[in-house]
Write a structure and sequence with these properties.
With 274 residues, the protein is mainly α. The chain is built from 15 helices and no strands.
Length: 274
C-alpha cells in the first residue's frame, strides 16, 4: 500500500487479510476503498457482499447486490441474491417482484433440471407471500403453479400451512391427510392434522388429548407398521390413565425389543417423570 495507494488490488488483498484476522470492520473499509478506485470490480463486490451478510449489515448487502445485478444482469445468482437481500430486510413486495421479473426472463427448458428449478423458484416466491402474512394470495399463487412444481410434498406443505392460517380447517384436514399418506413418520404432519381436525370439530380443550389419541389410533390401524402414531399417545396420557399407558407402552417397546433396536431408550426419556 505504501508503494501504491491507488491500487485496488492492494486494498482488496488488505481487506482479505483483515477478514482472515476477523477484523470485519477494517476489512469492510478496505473493500470500500478498493471499490472507490475500481467501482465495477465484480470480485471485490462479491467479497464485500459476503462480508456484509456475515456481519448482518443488511442495508449494505442490498446496495452491493443491486450493484452486482446492474453489472451482471444475465447471471441467475445475482437475481436470487438480490431477492434474498430484500427478503431478509422484510421488503416482501420488492422481493416477490424481483422473483417475478427474473422468472419472466427465463426461457423454459424441457429438461428435468430446468423444470425443477422453475418450480423451486415459484415455491420460494410463495414462501415470501406466506411470510408476509398474505395467505390468501399465497394460496392463489399455489393454484397457479401447481402444474410446474415437481416437489409435491413441499407444495402440499405450503398449502396446508396457508389453509390453517386462514382457518379453512376442512380443506387443511384433507391436505394434511394426504401428506401423512406420503410420510406417516413426520411429526409436523401429525401436528397439523390434529390441529385441523380439532379446529374443524371445535373440540373443547379438556377433550383434545383424548381426541388426538383417537386420531392416532385411526392412523395406526390403517398403517400398522408405522411407529409415530403409536408413540404420540404416550405423551398425552397422565396418571389418570396409568393402565392404558402401561398397555400402550408395552406394545410400543416390544416392537423394538423383538428387533434388537439399539439405544431405543433415548426415545423413552421424555416419558420419565422422576
Amino acid at each position: 500500500l505504501k508503494n501504491d495507494l491507488k491500487s485496488h488490488v492492494c486494498w482488496h488483498v488488505y481487506g482479505l487479510l483483515y477478514r482472515s484476522d476477523r477484523l470485519y470492520v477494517d476489512a469492510s473499509r478496505a473493500y470500500l476503498q478498493a471499490l472507490r478506485i475500481d467501482p465495477e470490480n465484480v470480485q471485490i463486490l462479491r467479497d464485500l457482499a459476503l462480508l456484509q451478510i456475515q456481519t448482518r449489515h443488511f442495508e449494505g448487502f442490498i446496495s452491493t447486490r443491486r450493484t452486482l445485478l446492474t453489472l451482471k444482469p444475465g447471471q441467475k445468482n445475482n437475481w436470487i441474491a438480490f431477492a434474498l437481500a430484500n427478503h431478509v430486510l422484510k421488503n416482501y413486495a420488492e422481493a416477490a417482484k424481483i422473483v417475478d421479473t427474473y422468472s419472466a426472463t427465463i426461457v423454459p427448458g424441457d429438461d428435468s433440471a430446468s423444470i425443477y428449478e422453475r418450480g423451486e423458484l415459484q415455491l420460494y416466491k410463495n414462501s415470501i407471500l406466506e411470510e408476509n402474512g398474505d395467505h390468501d394470495a399465497a394460496l392463489k399463487h399455489l393454484e397457479r403453479i401447481k402444474d410446474i412444481v415437481v416437489d409435491r410434498s413441499a407444495f402440499l406443505e405450503a398449502r396446508a400451512r396457508n389453509l390453517l392460517a386462514l382457518e379453512r380447517n376442512k380443506e387443511a384436514q384433507e391436505v394434511t391427510l394426504e401428506l401423512l399418506e406420503r410420510n406417516m413418520e413426520n411429526s409436523v404432519y401429525h401436528e397439523q392434522y390434529h390441529q385441523a381436525v380439532l379446529l374443524n370439530e371445535n373440540v373443547a380443550d379438556e377433550h383434545k388429548p383424548r381426541r388426538i389419541i383417537e386420531l392416532c389410533d385411526e392412523l395406526s390401524r390403517s398403517n400398522p407398521k408405522m411407529l409415530l402414531p403409536k408413540r404420540m399417545p404416550l405423551d398425552l396420557l397422565d396418571q389418570a390413565y396409568k393402565e392404558e399407558f402401561v398397555r400402550r407402552l408395552d406394545s410400543y417397546v416390544r416392537w423394538f425389543l423383538e428387533r434388537g433396536v439399539p439405544a431405543f431408550s433415548v426415545d423413552l426419556k421424555s416419558l420419565y417423570r422422576e
